Amino acid sequence: MFTSLRSRLWLSYALLVVTALSVVAIILFIYLIRNPFLYRQTLERLQAVQTVVMERDGQPISVVAERASKTFNVRILLFSADQQVLLDTHALKQPALSFPKQKLLPRSTPIVRDEKKAAWLYSIAKLPDDSYIMVAVPRPRVSLTNVFTDDFLPLIIQSGVLALLLSLVVAFFFARWIADPLQKVVYAARQMPSAEIKPVKPQGPHEVQELTRAFNGMIQRTQASQKSQREFVANVSHELKTPLTSIQGFAQAILDGTADTDVSRRQAAQIIYDESARMHRMVLDLLDLARLDAGTADITMSPVNMPALLRAVAEKFAPQLQRAGVEIKVESAAALPAISADGDRLAQVFTNLVDNALKYTPRGGSISLKISVVIGEMLVSVSDTGAGIPVEAQPHIFDRFYQADPARRGGEKHGAGLGLAIASEIVQAHGGRISVRSRLGEGTSFDVFLPLTKK
Prior knowledge:
By secondary structure, the protein is of the alpha+beta class.
C-alpha cells in the first residue's frame, strides 16, 4: 500500500491538508476559548441595551439608564469627557468600575476589571456631548466542555469535514495530474529498446513535460543509434564478405588442384594477399573510428607547420598523380601562424581527402590545396575538378560506409567508405569542423576549419 507515486503524492497532499486543517482547528479552538459563543451573545445584548438607552426620546439619560438597568439586569455607567464617573447604577452594590484603558493589543472580547479585580464584559459608546455610556455585566463563566460541544464541534463538523473531503478530492486529481504522465514514461521505458515505441505526449506540470520531452529525445537517439548499429553491422558484413569470398575461392582452387600451374597458383596467392591486405586496412580503419568515438585515440598536440605538412602529402601522391595524369598544387597565404595539432593525424586527414579527390578526378584534371586564415581559424580547402557529388548525397558524405552514386564508385578500388568518416572524427577531435561544397560537373571542395594556436 502507498508504494506507487500516485498514492504517495495523494498521501502527501492528504497529510498536508490534515495538518493545515489541524492548525486552523487549534487556532479556532483557542479563539473560541478566549471569545466563546456565550461572550458574543452577552455582548450583543449589552449593545442592544446601549442602543435603547441612547435613544431616550428626550428623557434624561440618567432616568433611562436606571430603568434599563433594572429591566435588563445590567450595570450602566456614564463617564464625563475627562473619563470621570457621572452615574453608576450599581455603585452601592458592586465595586467601582473605572473607564476602560486603551490597550496596545486590544482583546477580541472587551473586558474591564473592577476594584476587586473581577472581570466585566462591557460595551461603550460616545455620546453627542462627548460623554460616554458603558453597559456592563459580570463575565459569564464558561467551561471548556461547553466551548467544545457548543461552539467548536458544530463549526468543525459543518465546515472542517467538508473542507477536508473537498481537499482530498482535489489532492487526488493533483496526484493524477503529476503521476499519470510519469507512469506513461515508465511504461514507455519498459518497452525499450523496441523500435516500435512511440513518443510520449507531454502532459502535466512544466517539469514533467520537460522530463517527457527529454525522454522522447532519448528515444529518438536510441532508435537512431540502434538503426546505425544495424546498418553498421550489415555494412561491415557486406564489405568483409567480398574479400573473404575471394580468399576462400582461390584458397580452395589451390587446395583442390584447380590452380595447377605456377602462374595460376601465383595469381591465386596474389589475390589472397591483396584481399587480406584490404581486410586488414578495413579493420585498422574500424579500430581507428572506435578509438575516436570513445575519445581514447592517441592525439599528441604540438606546433604544426601546415604548408609543409600539405607539401609532404602532395609529394607522397606524386607517382599516382603522374600515372593518372592529374596535377596537384599547394597554395598558402604569406606568414601563416603555426597551429597546435597532431601532425600525423592531420596528415591522415589530408591524405584521405587527396586520395578521395584523385579517385574522382579525370585525366587532365587538377587538385588544389589552399591554406588561409578566416576569423580566428585556419581554413584548408582540398578541391578537385572531378564529376562532383549529387546534392542529395552531400549530407551523408561523412557517414560510415556511405558511398555516393554507385556509378561513380569506380569499383571496389574506392574502398569501404570509411576515409571521410575518419577524417571528420579526427578534425572534430582537434576542435575543428569539416564541410563539403560540390556541384555536378564542376568538382568538389572539402573545407577543413582548425582553431589557431592560442597565444
